[in-house]
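The authors assume throughout that readers already know how a fold can be written as discrete tokens. A single example would do more here than another paragraph of explanation. An entry of this sort, consisting of the sequence and the corresponding backbone structure tokens, reads as follows:
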Amino acid sequence: MKKFNLWLLLQFIAVLAFGQYSLKGIVYGNGEPLAGASVVIEDSYLGQSADLQGRFEFENLRAGNYSLKISFIGFEEKTIQVNLTRDDSVSIILERSVFLTDEILVSATRAKDKTPFAYANISGSEIENRNMGQDIPYLLSLTPSFVATSDAGAGVGYTNFRIRGTDLNRINVTVNGIPLNDAESHGTWFVDQPDLASSLENVQVQRGVGTSSNGAAAFGATINLQTNTLKKDPYAGYKTAAGSFNTFKNTLSAGTGLINDKFTFDARLSKVSSDGYVDRSYSDLKSFFVSVGYFSENTILKANIFSGVEETYQAWWGVPSVRLNNDYEGMKRYEEHWLYTPQQTQEMINSDSRTYNYYTYKNQVDHYQQDHYRLHFSHRLNSGLNISAALHYTYGRGYYENFREDEDFADYRMPYPEIEGVLIESTDLVNRKWLDNDFYGAIFSLNYIKGKSNVTFGGGWNTYDGRHFGKVIWAEYYGGTGLGHDWYRGTGVKKDFNTYLKYNFQFNEKLNLFADLQFRHISYEIDGTDDNLRDVSQTHRFDFFNPKFGLFYKPETNQEIYLSYSRANREPNRSNYVDADPEAEPPVHESLNDFEAGYNIRSNRFAAGINMYYMDYKNQLALTGEINDVGSAIMVNVDKSYRAGIELSLGIKLPDKLKWDANATFSRNKIPDFTEYVDNWDTSGQEAFSDLSFSPNTIAKSNFSWQPANHLHISLTSSYVGKQYIDNTSSDGRSLNAWFVNDLKIDYSFKTNLFNEVKIHLLVNNIFNEEYESNAWVYSYILGGERYKMDGYFPQAGINFMIGLDLSL
């Protein structure tokens, strides 16, 4: 009944928004109708694809002037003006493009307008407008079901994100179709590519399993990034921004435009730095992006090289809840229970309750560099057939440095030294944990469009070769070894092959059928020891079949309904294997069956949508509190778990150039049968408990956008994230409180004789100074018959600001 009432409400609102006239048309190219051509009414929510006869129709439009933007791959984009005073029809002829367009590089892995999945497209202009130095997750945070968090508390440096409650290790990320996820950990850390946002043309976020992609399995979402496309005219620009916490961002970019109507050269150089909100959580980030392209009517050959260097002071420990709550007795307990030394406890007591950082060693940093080399090739064989392929190589290397107090020499394979006849068993030392890796491979796709059929055949082959090792670079006492002593070495070699076949069949003018079949093969070999000197050698093989099916139906030109089923399988990552209890069964792969259903309705000034999902997991890996033989936390397979929710979206164009876009997610995220293990320090064993899992049940976003003058733009962005538990026990004592945060952005642009455009930006984050924590971890133990906890919360900054200036030639 509730669903039916919602349907009636949407219909009623739509009727109120509609006018009286219709606009029909046919799109031609090369003398024949262009089936699938995109027709969009600018400054509205209306857009559709032309049918098999190249026809389109917009109904119930009010009288007035409209701007239609028409595009189709391989043809020049065209914009026409229509003054609608009655029912009208137009005939549009697109000219074949002199150049093959860059969209072909990502088309194989992207959802199209009739793909039956939930997704959001973020344009380059939106990204550019939001980009004030914060990491990419913060630029995507307005998309539905998206939650971003920052270790340093201000969005610069290490960031984390979840979509539908799913962590970044289960979210597939690609750049121009090439995998960006780390092959072993499955995670994506955008801090390794600082300011990549300044080189992005657009982003697509698919929620749920989505369409088949290359690389890591999509267990919650897919993020598909496309870098800069062809710019025909020369350009140059400089962008600078400065603000709270000594945050600075400087970006210099330039391009030649077309040289001899064939070649292009584009380059960007960026530097971002910040002290961070949390004590000593500074970031020093540098990057560049270079692109050289050859373009002709039927061919693109493009080389992209980009690199990033990051050095961030570690803020991974978080703030204990006893420090946040000014609980003096609780802070003393950290010392009494041997969690902290007396000195560490005193440092915590003397610190600020929201900016405390456990680390005090001056060089407790994470330092990493990642270089990407990519060669793309696309060729149009005929009007309905094109091929794309790419070769890629990534070299990453870096370390994080740690000061360790009173470490046993044996734990570092160092002999005990004897000083003045006394055997020394422990020492203060500094170590570095290194990761040195190569990632290389190839991807391809063959795309065929003819009549009612749209077929894509593609895939990829990738190899990862990682070297893990640790070095002792300083010690108060040396046990017969010199500086740079290796205490562990291990390797991880992973090969990933996948191929997919996607078929979209337009059954009739209203109904599209979609099928997507993917096969994925993984071989993974781990060798050597880890930092606990455990032998972690092992070999694993996986063969996965991931089918996806869906229906897309348009009952009216402005309405659409879709249904889909998708299956995904995910292999355990390195830490799942390395940290597993050697006496227990090894972890097995996870499986997900994802069911999605949605309805969208649009008019000139109104858009609304609803998406319902049920994500049914088998053997999902989850933290249960269990530890291995050396005390490291492990993840174990949970037989059954699920995520179910409703995602709502709304857009309204109000009078006086005021626009409101909003979305909300209401969900349940459960592990029905769950066993938690808690360390019992009294018995040196573990106790078992049972309850359910976590994730925020409510996420809501709102953006009011107002343009009071032609060159002035004001927006108010609001985000609400409901209460979430930080372990799987639904305990209020181990949870994050809900938060509601508002940001204000003001932009003003103008032209001068020297610059084509000058933009001034003012961003005020958290304008109401909300105190909140966006992430946390917890460890529980039993001592003296009582349960205690050790935890770390990540406070986010209160009110803070950024001021920016963009200069474009």
